[in-house]
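Figure 2 data, in text form.
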Amino acid sequence: MHRAMKNIEELYSLLVPLYKARLIVPRTCVAEVVRYSLVEITKEGPAWFRGFVTWNDLRVPVLCFEDMSGIASSEPGGRTRVAIFNAIAGQLETGYFGLLTEGFPQLVHVNREVMELDDQQNWPEDGPVVCQIRMINERPLIPDLEKIEAMAHDYLASLSE
């Protein structure tokens, strides 16, 4: 590892607003935030699969994190956006997936002094939540982006069968 990397004490992260929760992800995970109105609905599928959005000439799957993790969700409204995430595991053909948000993500600086594990709730091991943390006045969830990508991949593969 590069010597400068060992000394990193602070990460630029995004607080991604959901209907009843927030996610916290490294800034580099989100490529862009776009309007929700561009979603192309497809045939019936799991509640968490909301259709596709066209972004940079790509057909990107749009997912609802709350429905994936068993958290209360809502119908999209005027503040709903799609955060385009980089698909880090390489399972999706387009290299991206979208998550519904309620507004725009907020840039935050995260360091050891402002966060600690919040273990009040147990999350299923096979679900899309790694854990929850406490940060000052927030209790954001850390999503398992590889699990989310795998769920999207498996569902999209079933569409072509």
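Caption note: The two ends are 43 Å apart (CA to CA).
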